[in-house]
């Protein structure tokens, strides 16, 4: 009784913290984009979470945690009905369900940042159903629902792959199909700066996300009696810190000045990077993983923009996709049990790589089909005139900042 | 000396400015304005109440230049700012009697 | 010992979350009103909470939880002195006191939104004493202090009625006595849009409120050992989500575009709606209650504005008043034990209706007298010139956004 | 096992709350300064926390909690290696470490506000290493690491002195060496107003800080089984409330209108003031301590500005320094065991005064040397032209609010 | 062609604009300005330091019109913008030599 | 009647305004503008992409005054706004044909 209460309180509080991450995502995404689209971005995030909760409760949870069908997916317990006795939960089912719900909405919301400032609102809603009901829960089943990846020993403690790289891959696919914002690339293909309208909001969002991550990672023990929560919290924090410090230093080196936006992204990179391994690596490894993520994020942003020429306004693909993959692989190197650097050989590393590939091979095609289907039906992108005027006026008929004089201009490449 | 005032689409500011700069118009002053003309406004809504946003964002560029450069500059502005759709904006020319450079006290054409 | 620690931690953490709701209220209210009044709105909320804590500790707590005088009110334990042994608390008295304090301030603060942009600051302070020391605690006593409503079986688990509809009724009374903002209604009585100045802040506020509600509802068990906290959290979340989704859909249907402000209100409506019944209804009922609230909020806003012609800048009356009443009545329909739809007959429904009426019959007249007394003494409304220039300059001599160029214009009805 | 889990959960949650205080500090500081420096302020706070975590883990923790060398400092356990068995912890070491880390970063970040809008970014980073690795941990050792102040009975439960006055003294020293912002003082030495650019952000920051303080003070029991956490939370809250109310009233009296910025500072003053004594005073004393702090903060701001002629943009010295000292002394008066007003004589009061003086005598000279060394090497202050244009452009090459038309003017003294 | 510049209270913008629109003035450019004149400023305070806010928010409307319409427009503006209290604002009339419609290249009166 | 338009550094606004006020220039209208001239712009960066901020914040003061006061006012502005470094700004003088005080309907010099 006491034990179950402790676990339940822990899981609930972690859920509340993860819930708040949605405020963080919303602030980051809004702050890093233009004022004329702020209302639309809010709506996408807010509805992404809200409708995501409903959809996941109805369908996603069953696909993810129903009794496994050959390790591939679950198919019972729709509408959250059923005992789910096979899960052997230490907490009441509702506690587990709310924790999984807030997680599911996180995977979905990542895409919204990459597709910001040009996506039709209705299209976004449809996409959101697809990823929450199906694409994400299948991956979740593989890893956390007793599926085949779990069975071969794949380790993704809190979701570098399950949550973040699924979001990242879908974001990449979506942003690529959607095409860049007007003015993002010059005729010669070189990228232009489109500065976000409120860096302070962006920073607030990152702080909130960091805070919420203390629910995301330590909460993934699903038990407060499991005292590794302390080490997990410590690892999570130091990895984020190392990511921020390295991104700051590396941007200074590379661009001549410490870049605010990339430094903020650096902390998120560190958080995403440590998410897979936070329960199986030590403090020193956490610093290294975070530091690596802080550099990787900057190279990732450049790669996606300059090589792939995909327009990802908030760097969602680099943060969640690239660093999600990276963090998952790092488990193969740094896991104190089984990691290559800790004498465990290459076995775990190969399993980790297999998992990364399998998830990419699942997410990219399904997301591709989903976005193509949306494009062919409701349409994916707003008209150019609406994009120029801003989606707030076009999609919702509002002005987000009615009392301020705005610029609405776009800077020229230097 | 004449003042050329042009009101253009915000998205065209950088292109116009850059082109004018290349043609030797060094000084200009830019204001973020809202304007209406033939271009239709938009309806907005707030908590169920509809209202009209018929003053749309524009950018006003003012530059004082020698009288003989006016026509050339007008041409350049049109070339860069024109999209052919309603809302492209206007150019106005008005007289200026004197100019002073605060830094040096120079007057007239030398001050431009 | 361990048990009491678990309960104490739970109650304290819930109190902290409810505390944070005041940040949420402040952001929502500020964002949905004009820039020229932002500083005043902050002051009202901030002082409402701060002075409310003092007043409730001195007087309100005694009225609410002192030994009952005929089921009507308590009258001992002023200054928070006394044992309050009759409450049979599972947690130390200070834990119970802080939880009740943050609740009390919530009821008080609701009014501030409805009276925004035209109320004298001093008047607001006086009002705040009245509701925190007396109006709210009496209702609280009836329902949670062992008073007559508790005795007849009235169910308001976390305060749809006790907190929200008390706030809502007082807000309606206040806004009505105060009169509309200049320009809110045309000569023919039709309402005009007065857009809020920062929709992003409004959204942040709603996220924070939602987060805080996880303290408000699950915390109301006053025990972490009571494992219904999991179901309560789940119900709370899904009702908010359903409220947001339905408000989005209904506003789209009704006004042609999905409205951002009303969607945000929809989530709050769902939260207020489920507050009474969160511990006694099931998941499906929670979805239905939330969805209903999401529609009701929009009709409520219209009713108050177009029929009653009361100017409520942030929709406080519709969110807290209308949905508070609605949520309380829904318990009579959906309670798994005693609800009409669950075979319980109309008994509970009638009790719920009686409670709703009694609380209205108490709150409206006392609030009326309070506001009239303030009007006759310190004065309720700022001069017209000050209202036009903004209360920030008039009441506090500040500019909230000193570095930005502002508009200060008002849109024309379409 | 259950006991340790409860304590661990409590310490971790408290750490998370304290972490969030950094978001609060960032918002307060950004809001109370000018738009042209917003990005720089974010970077300072964000990097202060991030690099502080790394530095404290490597060095500060060992200095603070290593086995004492004559009561002066610790010197083992660098890189967080070691058992720290002498601490007799009830929780796993990582839980203790993360709690101490977020605390350490708090002391460091206070300085950033006082030195805002004119300090070189690189200089700030260097300062941050100095205070986190050395200046703060030594004081921490004296009081919480079993050092000489602990041995003579000095009481500073959660850090009015250890955290806040250390930060305050360093802030005073730094702001004084740095000199005032251009335009802050007229030729005749009279101070001018330089209004902050976003009072709403400032308010949000104060709410977040208040919320985080519920981790700071109650969390300092380091045990959830210690039921004084309830009284501590209650005291903390009421002191903040009293501080806000008194600052509001006193500013009204003194300046003719209730001042928003000072009222917000008043709550922080109450929080800082109660931090030392929150576990050893009663509710009534908490009200008095908070109320006194609310007045003191206003006099403190005036004293620092008008008498010392030091430019402290956000009032950090008055809030953390002055009220930190004040709160520590109040323990000598109000401690229910040993306080002068509770019949304990002057013994404790003298010990408290000794502690206050010792900490000042340590912090001011070391901070002085640190800042002088920075000034002589990397340089402390940005060039005047950069200060005028804003540090965002100069230090980071960004515009924090790219889409808004800004003023960039400075008001004239009235 | 003349330019009419009027500086009015922000609260009067919509009324003036709507009235001018009804009377056939289709194009205008609006700027959010601050101004001082006979109207007293306000004192503000920040953390105990008093300062003067004597530039109060106003709205500037500029419209270029045919010379013969100037008087009628002045009348309309006065009718809508006047409250009778200090701070109502000013109207200025100044010469404009040419106008160009960017979209079509039309010049002079046709461009208005 | 003449309109004096000066574009100055934002930091100089209060000093110029106060000085003009003392010399009897009661009315003026101020706009926050951005401008370029001889003064170099700055490079900014956003997520690794460099861009140019060459329109720097300036303040534009417009005041309509009697013709005979123009020179004196120009002198005052120069005195207060000059730093001697590039970017100090410009003063332009242009003709105004009429002025109206909205509140009273007064015209011409009486309206200033
Ligand atoms: N007569 C005028 N006086 C001043 N500004 C004008 C005038 N006519 C148009 N403008 C400005 O030019 C902008 C574009 O004008 P509009 O009539 O919409 O497009 P177009 O010039 O393509 O017909 C308007 O928004 C307004 O700011
Ligand atoms: N001579 C002037 N030149 C330019 N603008 C002026 C002048 N006089 C007044 N204004 C503008 O008109 C506004 C109203 O003027 P004010 O003197 O306060 O009111 P009134 O016109 O009723 O006497 C001022 O805020 C300023 O923007
Ligand atoms: N020809 C012009 N027409 C309009 N505005 C100008 C002109 N030349 C300069 N300005 C304005 O004056 C400001 C200062 O000019 P700049 O050439 O940088 O300095 P200086 O006058 O010291 O040479 C510019 O930013 C611009 O706003």
How are the secondary structure elements laid out?
The complex is a heterohexamer, with 3 copies of chain A (414 residues) and 3 copies of chain B (112 residues).
Chain A: H1 2-31, H2 38-65, E1 68-69, E2 73-74, H3 93-114, H4 121-144, H5 148-151, H6 160-178, H7 199-216, H8 228-255, H9 260-275, H10 283-307, H11 316-334, H12 347-376, H13 384-389, H14 391-396
Antiparallel strand pairs in A: 1-2
Helix pairs in contact in A: 1-2, 1-3, 1-7, 2-3, 2-4, 3-4, 3-6, 4-6, 4-12, 6-11, 6-12, 7-9, 8-9, 8-10, 9-10, 9-11, 10-11, 11-12
Chain B: E1 2-8, H1 13-22, E2 28-36, E3 42-46, E4 49-53, E5 56-65, H2 70-81, E6 90-95, E7 98-101
Helix pairs in contact in B: 1-2
One adenosine-5'-diphosphate sits between chains B (7, 35-39, 56, 58, 86-90) and E (27-29, 62-64, 101, 103, 112).
Structural write-up:
The complex is a heterohexamer, with 3 copies of chain A (414 residues) and 3 copies of chain B (112 residues). The model of chain A has no long low-confidence stretch (mean pLDDT 96). Chain A has helices at residues 2-31, 38-65, 93-114, 121-144, 148-151, 160-178, 199-216, 228-255, 260-275, 283-307, 316-334, 347-376, 384-389, 391-396; strands at residues 68-69, 73-74. Chain A starts with a helix and ends in an 18-residue tail after the last helix. Chain A has 14 helices and 2 strands. Chain A is 66% helix and 1% strand. Chain A has a single domain (2-399), classed as Ammonium transporter AmtB like domains (Ammonium transporter fold, Orthogonal Bundle), CATH 1.10.3430.10. Chain A is mainly alpha-helical and 414 residues long. Chain A has a two-stranded antiparallel ribbon with strand order 1-2. Chain B is α+β, with helices and mostly antiparallel strands. Chain B is 20% helix and 41% strand. Chain B contains 2 helices and 7 strands, in the order E-H-E-E-E-E-H-E-E. Chain B has helices spanning 13-22, 70-81; strands spanning 2-8, 28-36, 42-46, 49-53, 56-65, 90-95, 98-101. In chain B, strands 2-5-1-6 form a 4-stranded antiparallel beta sheet, covered by helices on one side. A two-stranded antiparallel sheet of chain B has the order 3-4. In chain B, a hairpin with a 2-residue loop joins strand 3 and strand 4. The radius of gyration of chain B is 17 Å and the shape is elongated. Chain B starts with a strand and ends in an 11-residue tail after the last strand. The mean pLDDT of chain B is 92. Chains in contact: A-B, A-C, A-D, A-F, B-C, B-E, B-F, C-D, C-E, D-E, D-F, E-F. At the A-D interface, helix 1, helix 7, helix 8, helix 9 and helix 10 of A face helix 1, helix 2 and helix 3 of D. Strand 6 of chain E pairs antiparallel with strand 7 (98-101) of chain F. The complex binds adenosine-5'-diphosphate (3 copies). One adenosine-5'-diphosphate (ADP) sits between chains B (7, 35-39, 56, 58, 86-90) and E (27-29, 62-64, 101, 103, 112).
């Amino acid at each position: 009784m006491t034990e179950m209460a402790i676990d339940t309180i822990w899981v609930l509080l972690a859920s509340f913290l993860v819930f708040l991450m949605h405020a963080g995502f919303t602030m980051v995404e809004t702050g890093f984009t233009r004022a004329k689209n702020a209302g639309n971005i809010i709506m996408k995030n807010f509805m992404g979470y809200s409708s995501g909760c409903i959809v996941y409760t109805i369908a996603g949870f069953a696909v993810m945690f129903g009794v496994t069908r050959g390790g591939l997916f679950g198919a019972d317990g729709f509408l959250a009905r059923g005992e789910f006795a096979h899960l052997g939960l230490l907490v009441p089912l509702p506690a587990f369900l709310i924790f999984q719900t807030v997680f599911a909405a996180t995977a979905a919301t990542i895409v919204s940042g990459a597709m910001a400032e040009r996506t039709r609102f209705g299209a976004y809603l449809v996409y959101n159903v697809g990823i929450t009901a199906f694409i994400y829960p299948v991956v979740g089943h593989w890893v956390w629902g007793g599926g085949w990846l779990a069975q071969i020993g794949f380790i993704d403690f809190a979701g570098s792959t399950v949550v973040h790289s699924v979001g990242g891959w879908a974001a990449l696919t979506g942003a690529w199909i959607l095409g860049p914002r007007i003015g993002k690339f010059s005729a010669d293909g070189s990228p232009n700066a489109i500065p976000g309208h409120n860096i302070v909001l962006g920073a607030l969002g990152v702080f909130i996300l960091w805070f919420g991550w203390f629910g995301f990672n330590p909460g993934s023990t699903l038990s407060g009696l499991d005292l590794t929560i302390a080490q997990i919290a410590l690892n999570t924090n130091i990895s984020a810190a190392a990511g921020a410090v390295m991104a700051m230093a590396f941007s200074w080196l590379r661009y001549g000045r410490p870049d605010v936006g990339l430094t903020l992204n650096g902390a998120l990179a560190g958080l995403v990077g440590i998410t897979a391994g936070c329960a199986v690596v030590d403090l020193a490894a956490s610093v290294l993983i975070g530091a690596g993520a802080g550099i990787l994020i900057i190279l990732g942003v450049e790669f996606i923009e300059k090589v792939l020429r995909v327009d990802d306004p908030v760097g969602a693909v680099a943060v969640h996709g690239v660093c999600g993959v990276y963090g998952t692989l790092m488990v193969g190197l740094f896991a104190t049990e089984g990691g290559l650097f800790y004498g465990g050989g290459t076995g775990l590393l190969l399993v980790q790589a297999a998992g990364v590939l399998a998830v990419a091979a699942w997410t990219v095609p399904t997301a591709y089909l989903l976005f193509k289907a949306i494009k062919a039906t409701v349409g994916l992108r707003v008209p150019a005139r609406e994009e120029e005027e801003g989606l707030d006026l076009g999609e919702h008929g509002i002005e987000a900042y009615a009392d301020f004089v705005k610029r609405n201009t776009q800077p020229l490449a230097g | 000396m004449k003042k050329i005032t042009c009101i253009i689409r915000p998205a065209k500011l950088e292109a116009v400015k850059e082109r004018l700069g290349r043609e030797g118009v060094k000084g200009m002053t830019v204001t973020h304005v809202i304007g209406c003309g033939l271009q239709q406004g938009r309806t907005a809504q707030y908590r169920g109440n509809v209202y009209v946003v018929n003053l749309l964002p524009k950018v006003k560029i003012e530059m004082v230049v020698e009288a003989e450069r006016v026509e050339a500059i007008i041409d350049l502005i049109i070339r860069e700012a024109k999209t052919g759709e309603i809302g492209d904006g206007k150019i106005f020319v008005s007289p200026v009697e004197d100019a002073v450079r605060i830094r040096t006290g120079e007057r007239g054409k030398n001050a431009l």
